[in-house]
Structures are given as structure tokens and as C-alpha cells.
Design a protein that fits this description.
This protein has 490 residues and is α+β, with helices and mostly antiparallel strands. It has 14 helices and 26 strands. Strands 3, 4, 5, 6, 7, 8 and 25 form a seven-stranded antiparallel β-sheet that branches. A six-stranded mixed β-sheet has the order 10-11-12-18-19-24, sandwiched between helices. A four-stranded antiparallel β-sheet has the order 15-14-23-20.
Length: 490
């Protein structure tokens, strides 16, 4: 019912705010401009920074013919998309970008799979960093191996380093082409604290269609009088929500006294799943505001006036009718790195007004904006998609804040206790001696943490990571777009 109401509200909104587009709908776009036409109209309607892009103004084109003339200036839809964004990172790479996360794909099937944790993957989740003393050459290190993958059958593990692919040194200009191949051989390396050197070892890998269960580890750690639950969660994939709830059920059955949530490699995902996870952690805040959405002015103003509840994301007590296994915690320890983003940050920020959140690790990415998948259809949803192409967009459409209206963390959420990850001392994930987890346990129990020297040179400077390369791109997204588009007004 709420979805229907939102659809009707948006239709009325557009009817009154986009009169200039009515003339454009009187003329069908030529077949060779269908993708470009979809891009412009989708961004004009939903893009978060629509008022800040002159070519997206509601009165920019008086007729469809005028819009067509503009669209003919772009032979590649990707170029049009980038030109219609507000200071995209592709054009402003040195810290001046406003839009760091909107993107477009030419095959929405791949996009849909990636947002659910399915991708063509060899199973090596890695980070790429600059080699010491270089601004071009890269070194990769393995963060974890995905179970049931090709890599899980090979001699490669967390903490292993590689510098090349098929005998070619990885660089900032060739890493995408080398690592995007369906099969390749990694040239492994060692690091002595100052120098990275190849060691002659190679690992051949083949990508397959792989479903990654984001629940990598779920276990109980007993330390002193504390029963500590530890969950490593690597992606907010909605199709695993029931399994996530079961994992919390197992921890609840153990009678845990404390909880460590490991989001260090979690680039984000579904907003709905974020609210569900926060509800599993707590349970005492059902129906209270977890987060609030802020859309572009012409969408947001109408909702604030007519249906403000549509802009609220709330704590829940059920998942598709099944009761949530809530821990009713008043304090949580969350592990983060500079790869922690989007929906992960939403959990941290959304919980902060309600319970004590102790963040351990590194400053997060700083993504406080969310996206939605837009298709070329009368409603921009999946129904009646244009059969002539498979383009889809994932533009930023909303900013998100917590119940206290805080959402200004584009520089990242800073840890309560900083602990860097070092490739010389990665440790075993889930082991009580692993540096980040060890520090969390020490804060819980009062014991002395394992001493790790904080030397940023040995941590190496991050360049990118496997999730970003594979296309997931630090997402925080809505399950589906609000319905009611320009053509739906007719």
C-alpha cells in the first residue's frame, strides 16, 4: 500500500513540477537516441543534484526535438551520463569530485546480480596499494578467500601479496584490463617492510559465476567472563537476509554478553538490509527512525508536505513476516577499514543516536548518499523495459541522515580506537589474536591488547579494492525506484 501511495504522490509531483516535459513527450525519441533519452529523463527526474546541473534543468529543452538535438551530440551513452553528473570523479579525480559513486551499465542483468552478491569472480578479495616509493606501480594483498570459489582450491590465502598478472607489473593504468580478464595468473611477492619483490611463485585463477554469502564468519569467543559474539559480514545482500537472521539466532542462543560486528571489507548494499541488521543488533527500537532520506528538492519537498513517512527508514521486528532475532544490545563494537562504505556506514551512523557504538580500525570511505537502479521503462522500474537495449543507471538519488539529522561524514567515520591493517601482520580472520579483533576483545574485557606499532608506511597507501573493481562500487541502494515517470503522466 505504501509503495502505491508513493507512486501516486510522485505522479502528482511531476504533473505540477515538470510541465516543460509534457511537450517533449508529444514526440517520440528516435530509435538511435533511445538510450540517451532514457539517461536524460531519468537523471532529470531523480538525480540528487539535478538542480546543480544546467543541462538537467526542467526548462532546459522546450520540446523533444530540442532535447534530441542535444542528445545527438553524444555517440556513447556513457559520455552523456558522465557529462550530466555533478562534478563526477571521472572528471575531478583529485579530491574535488561531488559525485563519486553514480554509474551506468550496458547490461542490467549483471548489475542486478552484483547487487545481490553474484558476480563473475575467482574468489580472491584483495586490496591494491601503491608500491613503496611509487605513484604508478601497485601491489595487491589478499584480504580473504571466498568459499567455494576457484581460489579456495588453490595455494593462496589471506595476507599473500602479488605485484603482477601474467608477468606484467600492475599499474594504475593497466590493473583493470589485467584483473578483469576471465582467467589470469598472479605473480606473487614478498614484503620486508620497505621493499616489495617478486618471489617466483604464481597462482593461476579462473573466474566463475559465484554467489558470495556475505556471512563469512559467525562464532562465539569466550574470554574471561565474557561470551563475545563475532560476525564478519561482507555485503548487504537482501537475498541473504534470512540467513543473517539465522546467524543472529545462533548468537542469541549462545547467550552472548558482547558483540563484535566486522564490517572492515563491507562496501555496502541494501538500505533495507541495513535497517534489518540494526534491528537484529537492538530490538528495543521497533518503529523508531533508523534513518531519513533526503531527495532532490522537487521530489523531497512534495513528500515532506504530503507523506513525510515515506522519507523515514525505521527499525523493524520482522523480515517478510518472520520474527527478527534481536540481541537487545546497548553497546556494540564495529571493525572498519578504508574499505568500509555506504550501507555499513549507515549502520554505524543509524545506531549512534540509540546505543554506544565503539568503532575500531580505520576511517571509513564516507559515502552518505544512496542510489537506485533506473531502467528504460515507463516507470523507470523493471516492468515494460525497453527490449532494444539493456542499459541501466545507478545514479545517486538521495542523501541519508540518522534520527538526530546527522549525515555529514563525506570524509569518513573516524574510529574510536585506530588500528591499521598491516600486510606484514594480517592475522587470521576470526582468531582472537587478529589485530583488530584483538583490540576489540581487549576493550570488552579490560585485558591488554596485543601491541601493534602504528606505522602508516608499513600499512601502504590504498588505491582500490576488488569490490570496487568488480562493479559493486560501495553501494547503498533502494530496492526499487519510485514509480510514475514522464510517460506515466499521459
Amino acid at each position: 500500500m505504501k509503495t502505491i501511495l508513493k507512486s501516486l504522490l510522485l505522479i502528482f509531483l511531476l504533473a505540477f513540477s515538470l510541465q516543460s516535459c509534457e511537450d517533449q513527450d508529444d514526440v517520440e525519441s528516435p530509435s538511435d537516441l533511445q538510450v540517451n533519452d532514457f539517461i536524460w529523463k531519468g537523471l532529470n527526474q531523480f538525480y540528487l543534484w539535478q538542480p546543480d546541473v544546467a543541462n538537467l534543468a526542467d526548462n532546459r529543452f522546450a520540446t523533444q526535438d530540442a532535447l534530441n538535438s542535444f542528445l545527438r551530440g553524444y555517440s556513447k551513452p556513457e559520455d552523456l551520463f558522465q557529462d550530466l553528473l555533478n562534478k563526477p570523479i571521472s572528471k575531478f579525480p583529485k579530491g574535488q569530485a561531488v559525485d563519486r559513486f553514480s554509474w551506468i551499465v550496458d547490461d542490467y542483468t549483471v548489475l542486478e546480480q552484483e547487487l545481490q552478491g553474484t558476480s563473475k569472480n575467482d574468489g580472491v578479495d584483495f586490496r591494491l596499494s601503491y608500491k613503496p616509493g611509487s605513484t604508478t606501480d601497485l601491489v595487491g594483498f589478499v584480504r580473504y578467500i571466498i568459499p567455494n570459489s576457484d581460489a579456495s582450491t588453490k595455494d593462496i590465502k589471506r595476507g599473500d601479496l602479488f605485484t603482477g598478472v601474467n608477468g606484467t607489473q600492475l599499474t594504475v593504468s593497466n590493473y583493470q584490463s589485467l584483473l578483469n580478464a576471465d582467467s589470469y595468473t598472479l605473480n606473487m611477492a614478498t614484503y620486508n617492510g620497505s621493499t616489495v619483490a617478486t618471489n617466483g611463485k604464481t597462482v593461476a585463477l579462473v573466474k566463475t559465476t559465484l554467489d558470495e554469502n556475505p556471512i563469512l564468519i559467525n562464532k562465539l569467543i569466550v574470554s574471561g567472563g565474557h561470551k563475545i559474539g563475532y560476525l564478519m559480514y561482507n555485503g548487504f545482500y537482501p537475498n541473504y537476509d534470512a540467513q543473517l537472521n539465522s546467524a543472529f539466532g545462533a548468537l542469541k542462543a549462545e547467550g552472548i554478553t558482547d558483540f563484535v560486528l566486522d564490517l572492515r571489507y563491507n562496501g555496502g548494499g541494501s538500505i533495507q538490509t541495513s535497517a534489518r541488521l540494526a534491528s537484529m543488533i537492538t530490538g528495543q527500537f521497533t518503529d523508531k527512525i533508523f534513518a531519513k532520506e533526503k531527495w532532490n528538492p522537487k521530489v523531497n519537498e512534495y513528500y515532506e508536505s504530503e507523506d513525510p513517512e515515506s522519507l523515514k527508514v525505521k527499525f523493524v521486528d520482522k523480515i517478510d513476516g518472520a520474527a527478527i532475532n534481536s540481541l537487545n544490545l546497548t553497546k556494540i563494537y564495529i571493525l572498519t577499514t578504508d574499505g568500509t562504505a555506504s550501507a555499513s556506514e549507515l549502520v554505524i551512523n543509524g545506531l549512534a543516536p540509540y546505543i554506544s557504538v565503539v568503532q575500531i580500525g580505520e576511517t571509513t570511505v564516507g559515502k552518505n548518499v544512496g542510489s537506485v537502479t533506473l531502467y528504460d521503462s515507463p516507470s523507470f522500474g523493471k516492468t515494460n523495459r525497453n527490449p532494444n537495449h539493456k542499459y541501466a543507471m545507478q545514479p545517486l538519488v538521495l542523501k541519508i541522515v540518522n534520527a538526530s539529522d546527522f549525515g555529514e561524514y563525506t570524509d569518513g567515520l573516524k574510529p574510536t580506537y585506530e588500528q591499521l591493517e598491516y600486510i606484514t601482520n594480517m592475522g587470521v580472520l576470526g582468531d582472537a589474536s587478529e589485530p583488530l579483533l584483538n583490540l576489540a576483545i581487549s576493550k570488552i574485557t579490560g585485558a591488554t591488547a596485543k601491541k601493534i606499532q602504528q606505522d602508516r608506511k608499513e600499512a601502504l597507501t590504498t588505491f582500490t579494492n576488488a569490490k570496487a573493481i568488480n562493479g559493486i562500487r560501495n553501494q547503498m541502494y533502494l530496492e526499487k525506484a519510485p514509480e510514475g515517470l514522464l510517460k506515466a503522466l499521459k
